[in-house]
Design goal:
Blueprint lengths: L1 E5 L7 H9 L2 E4 L13 E6 L2 E6 L20 H13 L5 H14 L5 H16 L5 E4 L9 H11 L4 E4 L9 H6 L3 E5 L20 H8 L9 H6 L5 E2 L12
Parallel strand pairs: 1-2, 1-6, 2-5, 6-7
Antiparallel strand pairs: 3-4, 7-8
Amino acid sequence: MKAAVIQSNYIPWKGYFDIIHDVDLFIFYDDIQYTKNDWRNRNKIKTDQGPRWMTIPTGSQSNRLIHEVELPGGTWRRDHFRKIEMYYRKTPYYNRYKSFLEYVYLDQSWKHLSKLNHFLIRTIAQEFLGIKTKFADSREYDLKGQKSERLLDLVSQAGADVYFSGPAARSYLDEAAFRQAGIEVVYKDYTGYPEYDQRYPPFCHQVSILDLLFNCGDEAGKYIWGWRSRKGTAPPVESTRSVIEAPAQG
């Protein structure tokens, strides 16, 4: 059984959904330290001025776990909706997803960042991209240890024998301990994604999945994982023997 364990991100890029598609079980890992000015509470959209951040205000408190981060009231939800509408309303498939955006940004009042991120990721993965992967939360497990040891405990309890990881984890992952536990570690390679018709050239890969959905609709999966099947190639992953450059989002 293949599993991945990643912190929840705000409307993440296509690579995040690529690794979800690769595995049988995807575990949100939000009971660890919240990192400020990271992908947890912000992402980029494409504008006529190039990629621009959309950031959820989360306050200045540093000593808290991701799932403990509370969201403020105020205008940020309406501001994000207006920005998305401003730059994407003329894309081919914006109207298909508009009611979803209205529900998220105008109809709901989210108390915690994790709740918002989980809802966005699961809905996009399952309903818009047709991914069949099961989702879980690390808080469902009784975990011990720190960093790599804790992660190994989580993957073991989940019953996985293959662990898919973003390449950034190479700096702290105890690969020998995973091998000893009978778990193969596979590092995701996020290179090679084909370009699609994107507004406001030049093309940029490092933007929210919304950009791909608005521009390609039901064809979005072809630009995340489908292009590999057409080429008859295996999924772009690397064993623990190879060194991979870290991606920007996972």
